[in-house]
Amino acid sequence: MKTSTSILALATLASALPSQSVNKRACTSAVKLSGSENVFKSYTLHANSFYKAEVAEAVKNLSDKSLATAAAKVGNVGSFLWLDTIANIEKLKTELATDIPCKNILGLVIYDLPGRDCAAKASNGELAVGEINKYKTQYIDVIAGILKAHPNQAFALIIEPDSLPNLVTNIDETACQQSKSGYEEGVAYALKTLNLPNVVMYVDAGHGGWLGWNDNLKPGAEGLAKVYKAAGSPSQVRGISTNIAGWNAFDLTPGEFSKATDAQWNKAQNEKLYTELFGAALKTAGHPNHAIVDTGRNAVTGLRKEWGHWCNVKGAGFGVRPTSSTGAELVDAFVWGKPGGESDGTSDTSATRYDSFCGNDDAFKPSPEAGQWNQAYFEQLLKNAKPAF
Ligand code: BGC
Terminus of the chain with fewer CB atoms < 10 Å: N or C? Predict the structure, then answer.
């Protein structure tokens, strides 16, 4: 009697839990993706419930109510969900309990390496240099377990923005020297462990103004290839992500910084050129070279005083919506990597993670901590969107 009561109680509880709800639009058989095809030709980047909720809240708080209709549309744009802490793996579970249509691919950013963001401060993470075992067992293994438990769901992963590029150009900085072995071991572990049939992966390769310099192309490509090979050349790695949370135009000619005094040393003056030049270097180095490019906030050019400025660029606008029609052979899709409206870093000079780049003249102020919502910045992105909403 006692047993049957508790079973009944459990069953009632279970039916009330979202994780037990049945996704009526889910695929009915296992998804089989491969690094040898462009999955964005057959799948739509999913508009996740977290960005939807942020935008819905923003619509309520608009300072300019005439933007309401346009603002509401932003929530329907597909974007990547950032798993930026161990605790935020919960977001993935919550999202998987919603009705994701079979032909939608869920985009996730893997972003929690020990000593994260070694050359800057705004996105320093929760794991200290040396906490590689914690990264493996409490972060990557847990995510891999969830992805395995959802074989009928397709996933696209962006692997650790900025990490390997930092090892190429910022290795003179002590923090990056200390992070190096953890980044290489961590990214290789992520690629190996997340190499599942329902997953495709894009390893982050910075942008044209970073690894696009003549002297950086070869070491950059070799740096990525070394890690990819250490992971056993996983079949689900399709190539690279570029311009993540970035500002570069895709095919502006002449490029935004082509008149700079040092322009002769960089032929990757837009992201299309970058994917071609870096793509060729990757091929030589033995790394898959297809790309996805973040166009979330790149509508307006000519805003940055220097190419390397990365924090909450003032005057930016939402760019082209996610699509696999890129017109470029190596570019699988334009995606929204950074959820537009979330900050790149705080402008509060007294904060521990204050980075002077967020105090630059061309950075929007005030801005909250990285990842936090910035209502005024969202409204600016919307007003300057191209195409308009
Ligand atoms: C932050 C993350 C955040 C991501 C997306 C990064 O700059 O460090 O915490 O999730 O941006 O907004």
Answer: N
- pLDDT level of residue 14 (50, 70, 90 thresholds): very low
Identity of the amino acid at 304: R
371 lines ligand 1 (CB under 6 A): yes
Given the CA of residue 342, which atom of ligand 1 is nearest to it?
Answer: 12
Q: Is the pTM of this model over 0.90?
A: yes
C-beta separation of 360 from 306 below 8 A? no
Site of tokens 């993706």: 33
Catalytic residue, candidates 112, 294, 344, 355: 344
Which helix (H) or strand (E) covers residue 155, if one does? strand 154-159
Q: What is the mean pLDDT of the chain?
A: 95
Instruction: Using the predicted structure, report yes or no on whether residue 106 has a pLDDT greater than 70.
Output: yes
Share of the chain above pLDDT 70, in %: 94
Residue 340 Cβ < 6 Å to ligand 1: no
Nearest atom (ligand 1) to Cα of 122: 8
Known catalytic residue at 117: yes
Q: Please, what's the largest Cα pairwise distance for the chain?
A: 83
**Sequence-distant (≥ 6) Cβ neighbours of residue 320 within 8 angstroms:** 250, 295, 299, 334, 386, 387
**pLDDT at position 7, please?**
46
Q: Which of 112, 162, 204, 294 is catalytic?
A: 162
Query: Is 312 a pocket residue for ligand 1 (Cβ < 6 Å)?
Result: no
Q: What domains sit in the chain, N to C, each tagged with a CATH number?
A: 33-342+372-383 (3.20.20.40)
Residue among 33, 46, 40, 44 nearest 99 (CA) = 46
Q: Which of 112, 117, 204, 294 is catalytic?
A: 117
Give CA–CA dist 252/271, Å, rounded. 9
Q: Is the CB of 168 under 6 A from ligand 1?
A: no
Pairing mode of beta strands 104-110, 81-83: parallel
**Is 355 assigned a catalytic role?**
no
* pLDDT tens profile 23-70: 778 899 999 999 999 999 999 999 999 999 999 999 999 999 999 999
Consult the annotation and say whether 82 binds a ligand.
Answer: yes
- Give me the pLDDT at residue 5, please: 41
